[in-house]
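Duplicate of earlier report; DUF2550 domain-containing protein input re-posted below.
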Amino acid sequence: MEIVEGFGIGVAVVVVAILILFIRRALFTRSGGTIRLSVRVSTILDGRGWSPGFGRFVGDELRWYRMFSFALRPKRVLSREGLAVERRRLPEGQERMSMPAEWVILRCTSHHAPIEIAMARSTVTGFLSWLEAAPPGAVSPRLASQDWPAA
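Output:
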């Protein structure tokens, strides 16, 4: 009888953990401004170290949450102010097995350190648009240095 009770408790714990993961994901993705996004958390081995998750645009920040985590706080926060795309490339070698074929990898620089993020090709345009945008009344630092022709 003790074995059956222990097994039942174990199954209940696993079911509750899975429900928490799905409820957490549903809460974050229902409010809009959410994208599927992988972040390279380790560069020790070529083509490895990618962690799947999703990003939320909140004002001037892109908050990245791991897909399989119970944490309610983002694992990484990228500020639009110090973020710039350095290079764009397609997945190579081992990376092709860890992410969908239509994804693009962006190597970005920020105030803290370089970071690589991967997202769907269709999402890159929206991400770049958000990156170049400025709040109403302000001028984007990336656009301020360019000379625009007079209208």
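The longest strand covers residues 50-58.

Merging into the original ticket.
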